[in-house]
UniProtKB/TrEMBL annotation:
It comes from Chitinophaga pollutisoli. InterPro entries: KR_dom, NAD(P)-bd_dom_sf, Sc_DH/Rdtase_CS, SDR_fam. This is SDR family NAD(P)-dependent oxidoreductase. Belongs to the short-chain dehydrogenases/reductases (SDR) family. Keywords: Membrane, Transmembrane, Transmembrane helix. Pfam families: adh_short_C2 (PF13561).
């Protein structure tokens, strides 16, 4: 287990109060990391910290306020110490026909799902590259792998995140900072389960093109993030790992 051990590593996980982010935070803590979870709602973060147990720190913030991100990172490192691992999980969704999406709606999704991811990664990487060590893990989506209707802004953002992963890896890996991406498939969360159970045709379509014929668990994504953040992935950078039961290659 030594190569997957995160003991002594400090991890900042955005959107860590619920869903995939909560699963990542819980799993990182289980592998020894000192975990900081960030999100918009302080009450949700506090409840998540209690549920995980242990020494979980919380930061309530709105990452769409890009101008505040440098100060945010300064504050985190001043209060808690150097950030060794960043997991960019926070994001918003918009389900709407492309013809109906306004410029303001499109920009809003990109601001949170792309611009904030870049700004936070940049500010954290400034410090990581100076220390010659660090790991950044992006969370992408199947929307970056193939066309999914009614999620045009989300698709644009996640496709760009995968591109940024490669560009950042090329620039920062010579200074000891690895940058990788996880593209979750259809994962069984409370929200997704409700949506699919209310739409049997969609659920059958999802399972029909997933060779493993089942939905993933949040822990599947979390364990992939542990791997990419750990010494076990020490020679891996600039890659996108599909955690999808084969959905992205299914027919």
């Amino acid at each position: 287990m030594h190569d997957f051990d995160l003991s002594g590593k400090r991890a900042l996980i955005t959107g860590g109060g619920s869903g995939l982010g909560l699963a990542v935070a819980r799993t990182f803590a289980g592998y020894g990391a000192d975990v900081i979870i960030a999100g918009r709602r302080a009450d949700v973060l506090e409840a998540a910290a209690v549920a995980i147990g242990g020494n979980i720190r919380t930061i309530a913030c709105d990452l769409s306020q890009l101008e505040m991100i440098p100060e945010l990172v300064d504050g985190i490192e001043s209060a808690f110490g150097p950030i060794d691992v960043l997991v960019n999980n926070a994001g918003i969704h918009l389900k709407k026909d492309a013809l109906e999406v306004s410029d303001a709606e499109f920009e809003s999704v990109l601001r949170t799902n792309l611009q904030a991811v870049f700004a936070l990664s940049r500010e954290v990487a400034r410090r990581m590259t100076a220390r010659k060590s660090g790991s950044i893990v992006m969370i992408s989506s199947m929307a970056a792998k193939y066309g999914i209707p009614k999620v045009i802004a989300y698709t644009a953002a996640k496709s760009a995140v995968e591109g940024m992963t490669k560009a950042m890896a090329v620039e920062w890996s010579p200074d000891g900072v690895r940058v990788n991406c996880i593209a979750p498939g259809f994962i069984e969360t409370e929200m997704s389960a409700k949506a699919l159970n209310n739409d049997p045709d969609r659920k059958n379509r999802v399972l029909g093109r997933t060779p493993m014929r089942k939905l993933g668990k949040p822990e599947d994504v979390a364990l992939a993030a542990v791997f990419l953040a750990s010494p076990a992935a020490g020679f891996i950078t600039g890659t996108s790992l599909a955690v999808d039961g084969g959905n992205s290659i299914g027919f």
